[in-house]
Design a protein that fits this description.
Elements lengths: L1 H32 L5 H6 L2 H62 L3 E5 L5 E4 L1 H7 L17 H17 L3 E6 L6 E10 L5 E10 L1 H15 L9 H18 L3 E8 L2 H8 L1 H18 L5 E4 L4 E7 L6 H18 L8 E8 L7 H17 L5
Helix pairs in contact: 1-3, 8-9, 9-10
Length: 379
């Protein structure tokens, strides 16, 4: 800016000098014409000449001022334009760098990331999702989500995208893929323009299948008896709620069987705890063979087992128990072990017209089982 000011002042100075030079040259011309007059008299001249020369000097001065102002404006505009271009390039470089970093981040992540518009057309998909979907090249761009997914998936995805366009809020949830049954944690977020209008939806899908499998395994472990592989007490209460609700809905009575392995303490004392564990495993296998796969069979205590729900008429429950006892007898006939298996069975009936809790059923069946230990089954 200091250089511009100096040039401005130089232009004004030159215009003043130009005016003075014109004045002197005009006077010199008159000297040649009127050589007999003194030069100072010619330099000042008469009133008309004086006015003309002053006006001419003012013209040069005005022209100089105009030229200086125009030059300054032009240079200022050039500087501002250059600064704007420089700033634009800086911003453009920064934006490009930011985009490159973002794209690098998106492409290097293990998550599936894609962008769809309101019509579910793909606007962008990262490499990880391309690989998972089996896309080739960029054949997916501009094509609809609907072309690559099952109807159930399309219905679910359309509902969520429409909700985001309607509310403008992000949503997160666990999702089990209809395509391959894998579990994902998905985040769907709106993409807005400078006016705040939603233009698209970004989907970030994190594969949590291994985590869910571990969760299922931990859940199974927490509900499973380690020795027999049957449900434990926690598992029994967790799994028996639904059959109880079904019995209420169908207005159908069902039985709960309470089975106690007789003489477990004696087996442990006489043959060791390994033999006792084997006895528990054998009785568990016999229970599995005697009842349906859909029945809840559990070991709820050291030598205590339950089966629920046993669906049969009241007059047939004794037959079912007898068949189980016969299976135990056949096992004892074939075994080469030094001890024999024996089990006492107690029964409780669940009447949907007179509902009772699982705890109440267990107490009733347990009481009947102890009664059966010394007498025949009474029901």
């Amino acid at each position: 800016m200091n250089d511009i000011k100096r040039i401005k002042h130089l232009i004004i100075l030159l215009s003043i000098l130009a005016g003075l030079i014109f004045w002197i040259l005009d006077a010199l011309i008159d000297r040649l014409m009127f050589y007999d007059k003194p030069f100072l008299e010619i330099l000042s001249g008469n009133a008309n000449e004086m006015a003309f020369r002053l006006l001419t000097c003012l013209f040069f001065l005005g022209f100089g001022l105009f030229a200086a102002r125009t030059f300054c404006k032009q240079k200022k505009l050039e500087i501002e334009l250059r600064d704007e271009i420089t700033q634009y390039k800086i911003t453009e470089d920064a934006l490009r760098s930011s985009e490159d970093k973002y794209r690098s981040l998106v492409e290097s992540t293990n998550d599936s990331i894609y962008l769809v518009d309101k019509d579910l057309r793909y606007l962008y998909i990262n490499k990880n999702h391309i690989t998972r979907m089996g896309f080739k090249g960029e054949e997916y761009l501009g094509r609809s989500y609907n072309e690559f997914h099952l109807p159930e998936e399309i219905k679910w995805f359309t509902k969520n995208v429409n909700e985001i366009f309607s509310t403008g809020h992000s949503v997160q949830f666990e999702h089990k893929s209809f395509r391959d049954g894998r579990y994902f944690f998905q985040t769907l977020s709106p993409v807005k323009d400078s006016d705040g209008k939603i233009m698209a939806v970004t989907v970030i899908s994190k594969d949590i299948n291994d985590l869910k499998e571990m969760e299922h395994k931990l859940h199974a472990l927490s509900n499973t008896d380690e020795l027999t592989g049957l449900l434990n007490r926690r598992g029994f209460f967790s799994m028996s709620g639904q059959p109880l609700k079904l019995a209420n809905r169908k207005k159908t009575g069902v039985f709960l069987l309470f089975v106690d392995l007789d003489g477990l303490k004696s087996i442990n004392d006489n043959f060791g705890h390994t033999a006792g564990d084997s006895a528990l495993i054998e009785i568990s296998l016999l229970l599995k063979k005697s009842f349906r796969d859909s029945d809840v069979i559990a070991r709820i205590g050291g030598d205590e087992f339950v089966v629920f729900p046993v669906e049969t008429a009241k007059e047939n429950i004794s037959t079912i128990i007898d068949r189980f006892q016969e299976r135990i007898d056949r096992h004892n006939e074939k075994t080469t072990l030094a001890y024999k298996l024996s089990a006492s069975v107690g029964v409780a009936y669940y009447d949907p017209e007179k509902p009772s809790s699982l705890d109440e059923l267990l107490l009733q069946a347990d009481s009947n089982m102890y009664e059966q230990k010394s007498h025949d089954l009474k029901f």
